[in-house]
Amino acid sequence: MQYFEKNSRALDYIVSKDQKKHVITKYLLDQELTFKVDPFDKKATIKKYMEEDEKVLIYVQDGLEESGDNKVSLYKILAKFIELDCILVQKIEKDLYLLKVERLAIAKLNRESARILVPNGKAFVTNVVSSKTVIDANMFNIPTLVKVNFEDYKNRLKKNSTDNIVIDAFKPGLDRKFEIVKRTRKSLLLEDTQNTESYMTAMNPDRLNYTKEIDDDIGSVVRKFKDQKIVSELIRPIIYKNHSNDLIPIGYIWIQSRDKKLSSDYLEELGRLSDEVVGRIKESNTIKTIERFRILDASAKGIKVKIHDPNLMDTLPKQEDFVFDVLFKMQAPLTVSGTIRWWSKDEDEHLILGLEFKSKSDHPGERDRYIKNLELMQKGAL
What we know:
CATH topology of the largest domain: Beta-Lactamase
CATH superfamily of the largest domain: GAF domain
Distance between the termini: 32 Å
Oligomer: single chain
CATH architecture of the largest domain: 2-Layer Sandwich
Largest sheet: 6 strands, antiparallel, barrel
Number of helices: 9
C-alpha cells in the first residue's frame, strides 16, 4: 500500500561513508527494520553491510512482492527514528535482497512517547470538523459555493449603485495590478484617477503605493482612465482563512466609478463586507461528520485512525489539519486539533491517517484524562 508523508519529521542526513558504516554496523546490523509501507507489518533484517559500495544485504521472510517500483524505505525506532532509503539492486536468492543505500537519516528529536495499540471498540474519533472543499490560492476550478457567494454579494452592492462592480476569483491573465493585490494581500485605492498624488501615496500599510509597487509610468495610466471616463478605482482582496489559519487571497472586489470619488471609508466598509463574504463561504464549506472512526494506536503526541466515510476519504488527504473528538468508551469526548503527518490506504481502500495533536482541549484535566486512559489501556485495564 502507498504511503504519503505530508508533514515530515525533522531529519539529519548522514553523508559520510564512515558515519554511515558506524550507524549501520553498530545499530542496524542483524536488527529487524520495518518497511515504510502501511500497515507497517513487513520486516527485514540487515545481514551484511558492504562499505565500499554502500550496499546492504537484507533478509525478508516470505520475500518481496514483485512491483515496478525499486525504491525501498526501511526504518527502526531506537532512542531516535532511523530511516534507510534504498534502491533494490537484485534478488540474490529466496528471501535475500541486495539494496543500494541512497540516504541514511536520523530524527533530530528523540521519540517522546510510545505508541499503544488500541483494542477494537475502546477508542474512536468522532465529530470531525473539516472542509468540504480545499480552498487555496491557486484553484484551477472555483468551487460552486465560492461562485454563489461572490455573485450574491455583487448583486447586493449593485442594488444602490451605478458603479462598475466585479467580485470574482483571481484567475490567470489578469492585469498586473490584480497580481500585486493577490501577492501582497493589500488593497489598491485611486481616489482620483486624474490626480497623480493618488498614485503616489498610501495612507496605511494595508494599501498599495501604485507608483512604487505596480507601475511608475503614471502618465499613460492617467490618460487611459481619462479615455475610459473612470473617475475613481479600487481593488479590495478577499482573504480566506482556512481551518489551519492560513490566509488565502481567493478573490477581489473591483469597483470603478464614473461619477464620484471612492473614499477610504468606503474601502473600509468593503473590508467588512469582505469578512462577511469569507464567513459565509467558510460556513458553507464546513462539515461536521458524527460517525465514529476506529483509533488503531495512540500515544501522548497523537493517534493513528482508520476513516471509512467516502467524503472524508477524499477530502482529508488534501487538508493539513482538522478538529475532532477523541472518544474513549463510556466517557465524555476530548476535543483536539490534529495535524496530518502521513496518510495511506488499507487493503479495503479505507483511509489511514497519522495525526499529531496540534492543540488540546482547554478544559482543565482533559489531557491528564487522556494520558490516564493510555496508561490503563497499556495495562489492559480499560
